[in-house]
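Subject: mismatched residue count in predicted assembly?

I count 910 residues in my input, but I want to confirm that the predicted structure covers every chain. Input:
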Amino acid sequence: MSSSSSLRILTRVCSRTKPSRRLTRSAEKRPLHLSASHRTAATAVHGHGATVNADEISHFSRLSAEWWDEQGEFAFLHRMNPVRVQFIQEKLAEIASDESESGAIVPPHSVLQGLDVLDVGCGGGLLSETLARLGANTTGIDASEANIGIASLHASADPSLRASGNLGYLHTTTDDLLTASSSTSSSPPKQYDVVASLEVLEHVDNPSHFLDTCCKLVKPGGHLFLSTIARTPLAYGLTILMAEHVLRKVSVGTHTYSKFVNPEELLDFFKRYPKGSPGDYQKWISSDATTYIPRHQAEIRGLIYNPFSASWSLGPRNSLAAAQCNYLMWVRKPKEGEV
Amino acid sequence: MLALRPTTGRSSCLTRVIVKNVNSRRLSAGPGGQQQDVDVVIVGGGPAGLALASALGSSSSVGNKLSVALVEAGDLDKLKHWAPAQGAYSNRVVSLTNVSRDFLKRIGAWDYVEEQRTRPVEDMQVWDGVSGARITFSASEMGLKHPENGMSRLTENFNIQRGLLRHLEKLPQVQLIQRTKVQSISQGPSDEQGWPIVHLDNGTTLRSRLLVGADGFNSPVRTFAGIQSYGWSYDTQAIVATMEHEPRGAFEGPNTTAYQRFLPTGPIAFLPLSPTVSSLVWSIRPHIAKALLSCEPTVLASMINAAFRLPAFSLQYLYDRILEAHNGNLPITPPQIQEEIEFRERTHDINQNSAYTSLIGSTRRGGVAPEEAESVPPFVTSLQPGSPASFPLRYNHADAYIGEGKGARTVLVGDAAHTVHPLAGQGLNLGLADVECLAKCVERSVARGGDVGSYTALLPYAQERYLQNHIMMAAVDKLHKLYTIDLEPVVWARSAGLEVVNELDSLKAALMMSAGAEAPVEPSVAAWSAASNLIQGASAVVELSRAVKSGATNVLFNGLSNLLSQTQQRK
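Triage response: the counts match. Full output below for your records.
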């Protein structure tokens, strides 16, 4: 959902202002670009020799209102957010408790404290803000420059996010994060404890390549969280027919049925990932696990919407029957040395 | 204004771009004033506002993550150091349900409430002043977990507020801003997402993530949020007073029975506070209330005794006498009212030794109490000086509990959201239930990293509380309307209704809840619905009985049979 609207917004921005920027610029320039845009915006407001006009600010603000209008286009996403965060927290806490040497239980509310988290396809920053509030050093990236502007603007209005300083946004892509560092320096790309890419997969063109880049940004032993929509008649009926055409809660064209991804397909992907003969690398999900999903390797949870209370809830663990429409997936990168 | 400073000299990849450097935190806003960012601003230091501050302050997950400020125009220090004389009680009393008390215990505030100044209600007697139909409740029969705690606990509002303030003293993270008025509330600039800004009369402004209106019936927060409310005034005043009386006799049990008599002018309630002190809540037409309060307190005391004992039409006669004297600028004197009451009692053949005689001083002290002594409250001998007072009664319910659009990031609790007739003693309990639910929503939102001022975070609060409050308020409202009618067929239906009520578990549960018990079977809302349906049935009879005058007798008959068959089916 999110990224499609980001695409929509991006298109709108492009048609309004300038041709789409190719996303292949070198990585160092990109954060600069963001701060530059804000510098000009800020100076425009403060009146010290402006280059960018107040028009752009008001434009950002207007889009921001859309992303953050909790009863508008993104209402479903807003309602979904607490449940997505719950899944992330509980899964991380479960693994952390299992692995804590003292045997102490790690409470879900503090498990994100201090972790490096990358939110891929952050859109207006719905997830990034919540993760940052929970203490994660969060970086939100989005291919849409407009989204990054919106997300930054929105977060900057929140005094506690400003004070904690653990949230940053970058206009970039996973590809660029990987290639930029390898082309400019010998240092490997920065890897994260947690990479989350929620409601994005169904909007990308080459999902397996996209997943590959996400996986490479995860630290060994780190976590990848995904959410998307299954390619089922139910999902078609709910997300396209009902949401877009009948109820018109979401703009027509937000979703493309053929791009939906089934949970089995994702499980398959990670059973074969990374590529290579079985002896070379530990696969993310043991390929011999045919009848169940190993608890320390992956988990699938359906997201179930209750239209009467306008709220989402998590389905049972690893129930593919409950993952016939929106679902979440967690998968873990094997630790170094695990073969 | 953009809250960003140019991140000069930082060109390396993945710098923390936003958030750190802030130049737009305008510390000075307005002449000499300061702007402060606060996560939760609570306007109003009544029981609901204080309870919310306590709940948030004492919550382990919220306490250190959110800043909380409470603004109150009055003097909270004075309330915190409230020290009434031995035996003296304030006139505003609340019947705290066990659910409400458990909530106060959970947040740790109950430890600071002076338990000696609370009184469990172990029994309740409710009767119809016209037909005499009566229902009795006993905590010991209710299957409560702790019957010794009674079905509810009566105490002064001040005792609760003082307890909450003492609790807040231990929670320094909650900022109490007292003796300070809210001058105005405005919506912040749009680039700050329009967070509400509260302007205080000391020059400070509070920019609030979440603005809570716990500011009572005329809520300025509700006005700011643009939330309409719907309601009416009952054309009724509630007279309150602290009554002193003889202790109960040896065979009558302690003073732990609450009494309520439904009179055509409104219900009168006798709420025990100690063995010799009880509190009065008497709903009555405003002109009678005015006349009664302008008499000597002894007259009011005699009238209270009479109102629990004399037949309704004799009371009407007494009101007329009092009004007549009042309008003639010659308020009735104690001997005059004594004489009038004596005369009415003689007319009704009330024995001078019976429990139903309402003449101060004429009863025997000690010894064996007369028959049915427990059917009426103890004799009121005097009223504590300065305690008689009155306030108007209303029904009012806000159209929404959460502000939207320009009023976003606002939420209403307690009387700001709803004002209810006090006959069921539910006002404060509804407010505390609001607070508990809202505090839970805030906790849940914080636990998930949410923005506590967001619509998403607040929505469950509105979803959970609005309907529950509405059902209970509607039922209480219907009760009031049903019992302030003395048309013959209605009275007949009413007494039949009450006797049927005694048999019906669901209705009994509902009425017990109104008395403040914890629901014996949990689904409280269901019980209230059942009650309100029955009462609705009876209200239909009211409508029908109006039609009687136009000759539709057979319709009335049908209406009554419907009512009875309905109640039978429920059984």
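Chain B touches chain A through 46 residues (CB under 8 Å). Marking this ticket as 'not a bug'.
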